[in-house]
Amino acid sequence: MNTQDDLRVNSDRLWRDFIELSLIGETRAGGVARLALSNEDLRARLWFANKLEANGLHVYDDDAGNLSGVLSCGNPKAKTLLIGSHLDGVPDGGRYDNSVGIICALECARVIQVAGIKLPFHLEIINFTDGEGCWQSLFGSRALANKLTDNYMSDTPTDYAPFRAALMRAGISPAKVKNAKRNPHHLAGYLEIHIEQGHRLDDAQIPIGIVTDIVGRTTYQMTFYGEAGHSGTTRRENRRDALRGAAEFITQAHRLVEENYPDGVFNCGNILVSPGAFNIIPSEAQLTVECRHYHKRTLADMESRILKLAQDTAIANRLTVSQKREIHMPAAHMSPEIANHIRTACQHLHITYLDIVSYAGHDAQMMFDITPTGMIFIPSKDGISHSPKEFTDWDDVVCGANVLLHTILQIANHYDAK
Amino acid sequence: MNTQDDLRVNSDRLWRDFIELSLIGETRAGGVARLALSNEDLRARLWFANKLEANGLHVYDDDAGNLSGVLSCGNPKAKTLLIGSHLDGVPDGGRYDNSVGIICALECARVIQVAGIKLPFHLEIINFTDGEGCWQSLFGSRALANKLTDNYMSDTPTDYAPFRAALMRAGISPAKVKNAKRNPHHLAGYLEIHIEQGHRLDDAQIPIGIVTDIVGRTTYQMTFYGEAGHSGTTRRENRRDALRGAAEFITQAHRLVEENYPDGVFNCGNILVSPGAFNIIPSEAQLTVECRHYHKRTLADMESRILKLAQDTAIANRLTVSQKREIHMPAAHMSPEIANHIRTACQHLHITYLDIVSYAGHDAQMMFDITPTGMIFIPSKDGISHSPKEFTDWDDVVCGANVLLHTILQIANHYDAK
Lengths: 418, 418
Fold this sequence. Notes:
Radius of gyration of chain A: 24 Å
Low-confidence stretches of chain A: none
Mean pLDDT of chain A: 94
Helix content of chain A: 25-40%
Number of domains of chain A: 2
Number of strands of chain A: 13
Number of helices of chain A: 11
Shape of chain A: elongated
CATH topology of the largest domain in chain A: Aminopeptidase
Strand content of chain A: 15-25%
Distance between the termini of chain A: 32 Å
Oligomer: homodimer
CATH class of the largest domain in chain A: Alpha Beta
């Protein structure tokens, strides 16, 4: 008879799940479009619920639409180890992000159940609502971690009306989403396996990344204000060109970050110009600006220098600028104990690994400060993600699933019920 | 009895016309919105036709919708001096641009008619269709000057379908617009009075500008192409950010023109970014770019350096760029003879004047190379135009009308029928 050490996931069973899931919302480009709360997402949830039930897991859904399968340990006082990810994806996305997180977690629960292993905690496989932030970034895990603001429930601002409609259509009552919060004392930890969405593992040909930090991210809406005027007849020294100021800011902000923040990210993803006619000096330029850094203080420093740069550029161009902080996702630090368990699992399986920072956001960012949290990355071919070209070698998926399995077992073996 | 030298326009009569016309399409902001071929434009044309008829002028409209009142000189072989402008305006525009051109021309015809002055040419007051280019820049004068392309008549490209519908609704048959062309040998010249839309007369406190040149203008659509990617996870050296390249180009193009072309104008009036999400590297940035200069060769030189700059900036940022020349309005030189007649008229009336370049486009740009053409500018308060704040002192309007009147008389007195 096999010992725990010899346990492995079933690659064929995992593959069948992968293919079944890839068909839900498949696109002509060979990818998947499964926007949160869309018909495709609801079909994927149904598929998941059926799988959970077929495997004898207890199906549970909370008031934020998070959908779980629980393998109870039999002790009503035991805590719960959450293994999560999201079935929803981006428009025109790929087949991996992050269906693989869900199917690997499901497979681990099956292997542990079939092997009859008695865990010291309940094992809960959880699909978080809107992991991609099609409506609200990390909505499901945010609700579970009790970090939701009141916006969604009230009838104002009207911006959220379509979101509320989508929730209600999915059977989720906007007035009740806050009930999804969990008591952190009932949690034993949070684990997630995810494709890297970057190039480092692929470059290094290393199959496992052990996430140490998740990048913090702040998004601003900045609007430069000048004055409209006839492009031909306005005196040069009277021009107050909002787009010219915005263009200088974008150029200099990229340089500022390049020269001073080797691990920082600056992105200006959009710009909207008013009035937008060829022969009118732009009076408004509205920019969507994003800063990322995994170090909290460095991110704050980067942000303040970028805000200052925008102010200075506005003044130099005789403009004004408004700056609105839209989203802030704080940098998240993974639990060193959990990282250690992942490391031990890799060593046990003779798999090479790399400590890695995640530059993309994850549900783990909502979880890390309420329960010990860990993330396992598997390679993304050429670093491509959010694209039909997203690809991970199947061997790497299986390898990741086995690391997840043995990390769960490591956590269990070193578990102190307290 | 008055001599010709003592003739003056009737300020009260002119004022009544101005007020009547200001009510057609008046806006809450105190301006006028009278887009070409709109209900308001059609009402203004009706007002104009009624005025012409009431004053005993022969009403004539051509196949491009240009609407004229003709004061015949009685000689069927005589040529025609055109005095023109446009009744249509920009959205949310003012009361002056360029209703004053039409009412001053009408007033001159009335004064000449009432005084019983025998001119050596027919005098034709003409309202050109779409002088503001709401549908097609300088459509009416373009048709009259036989410079229309075939686009408007054919069913393709479909872009022009709404324009054709608007023409047909106004009783203008798209298939016949080219019939509006005139034989240049039948024309004695073209004159127009227009608000300056700039600040030079107002700054100098001089009531009359004698236009020497009208700026040439070229509009490009330039699209920078990069590659979309996750803003957080894409390697810095792999970023191909179309917006960053576009921003560098805008910044440098403004500097290039400032440093090398003291009389040149560069404007980037709009930019459209794809895909436009905060966390995606922009793959496309589409710019609307405009260059102006009154000297043909200098404009060509400016254009080629700006196109080169865009190419170089694209290469430096590992992007590509497409460049499409959308509109080219050649620089236009006013007739020195007509300018001389305007100068003499000013001297006769003891009015100061200034030679001036027009940085805005005018119907005169279509006319200057088919018949001797002149333009008279009157001041725009603070240089403001295309705005409800557009304002010209009434005294300046009357002064301009008198200069127009005496310019017509000067042309008549020096006319060689050939």
